[in-house]
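INTERNAL AUDIT FORM
Audit reference: QA-55
Scope: verify that the stored structure record matches its stored sequence.
Auditor: D.O.
Record contents follow.
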Amino acid sequence: MKVFVTGTSGQLGHDVMDILTERGIPCVGVDLPDFDLTDAEGVKRQVLSCRPDAIIHCAAYTAVDKAEDCPDDAYAVNVSGTRAVAEAAKELQAKMIYVSTDYVFDGQGETPFQVDDRKAPQNQYGKTKLEGENAVTELLSQYFIVRTSWVFGGKEGKNFVRTMLHLSETRDTLDVVCDQVGSPTYSYDLAVLLCDMIVTDRYGVYHGTNENFCSWYEFACEIFKQAGKEMKVNPVTTQEYTSAKAKRPLNSRLSKQSLDEAGFHRLPTWQDALGRYLKLLAE
């Protein structure tokens, strides 16, 4: 089996490559500037020339607020680019994993979303990710769609954990949103799930996040607690805090029932994942 992985300069794609390599599974990783999802023909040409047996599509346009101003750019990557990857997968009869998001739902209520709950994205990013899902399901039968949320990981690049630690170096007080609830997800743990999936034929739609729910405020408090840093964190509402252009979901809880039914292992708790990540950053 040979696996083609997109978005390998990002947290998740990088971890996927590491795990596939550790497991002795041949893999080819691509990202910008050589692999440009806005060039649909170029994307298909590259995938077809590699002739993989499977594709793990991690690359995406994830600038949520920027997508409100540049919806065409988000569409080109998340919809047209994903469709090109799926078309190549169809031609090769390769299986494909598409990484999606809780933003495909309306973000309301307090109940964890099931995989087949009504889709009602509230911003451009969510709309394009849903259309990317639709492209995959229209073209392929051998697919996995894995929705996730609040991803952190990697020693480089931006994520909530590294941002909190960085801010703690220059401030002693922070305001953090307390009315958005979800599951922080460690990119390494999610990558393990994707690599477990890709060697099976248990196709379908799944939710992959670390276990347990919290608010961003509770997540921040736990980061400082585990890092041994003194920091006063003030809980504030989304309305009080944000000037963001894109509407954020208040409910990002995702049900893992489909993982259980298919026999895949749930991810560890986010608290456990955070501890392992902080240890990695300290090395």
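Auditor finding: record pair retrieved intact. The mean pLDDT is 97.
Action required: none
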